[in-house]
Specification:
204 residues, alpha/beta, Nucleotidyltransferase, domain 5, six-stranded mixed sheet, 7 helices, 6 strands, 17% strand
């Protein structure tokens, strides 16, 4: 594994292929309180690219272009949060997208454990460490432990997606999953507009 650290933006000539795994690190889980600090990506080739963003300007045209590129599928785990952060801080709507957490909930109905650590252990045979999850991602310098953690969150998403695709097809839920993925940027926008804790589809 090689982890490439980029300050501010991705290189203009970087080609990550037609499917790129994406994750982000923030100072917390509240949209307007906690800033977006780091975005990490992988082409599924064993390497990871970590972008330490230049807050508060977020001047990263190459990263923004990639998130909005209709020819590149962005693979997330719990993409609802990352997509919302990108809408808020980068000013882009991320499409098209695939969320392994949604796919897991539709395919792995025999369990209620859909966190990335659990999904990766079962479907990719990887035991992931979450020790750096709550570290200071706004620091001026990221530690090697932080970089390794950030990389681990995207390195296995392609393998997980492939396994989930097989399960979704087997259970006849592929089209249902695609419809959910298509709606995900809208769900993120609802979060940003104040409906983050409200199910607008509920009867009450």
């Amino acid at each position: 594994m090689t982890v490439y650290l980029h300050e501010g933006d991705l290189p203009a000539d970087l080609d990550l292929g037609p499917e790129v795994a994406v994750d982000s690190e923030t100072m917390g889980l509240r949209f307007r309180r906690d800033p977006l600090c780091v975005v990490q990506l992988s082409a599924g080739n064993g390497d990871a690219h970590v972008v330490r963003l230049n807050r508060p300007a977020y001047d990263c045209p190459n990263l923004k272009r990639l998130m909005a590129d209709q020819a590149v599928l962005k693979i997330f785990h719990f993409g609802r949060f990352d997509i919302g952060m990108f809408q808020l801080h980068l000013g882009v709507e991320t499409r098209p997208v695939y969320c392994t957490k949604i796919a897991s909930k539709l395919a792995r109905t025999y369990t209620d454990r859909h966190g990335l650590k659990d999904v990766a252990r079962e479907l990719a045979g990887i035991d992931m460490s979450k020790a750096q999850q709550s570290s200071d991602w706004g620091a001026q310098t990221l530690t090697q432990a932080q970089l390794d953690y950030a990389a681990s969150d995207v390195l296995h998403l392609h393998v997980i997606k492939a396994r989930l695709d097989e399960m979704l097809a087997r259970e006849g839920r592929t089209e249902l999953a695609r419809a959910c993925f298509d709606f995900l940027p809208t769900r993120s926008r609802l979060d940003l507009e104040g409906w983050d804790e409200i199910d607008i589809f509920a009867h009450a």
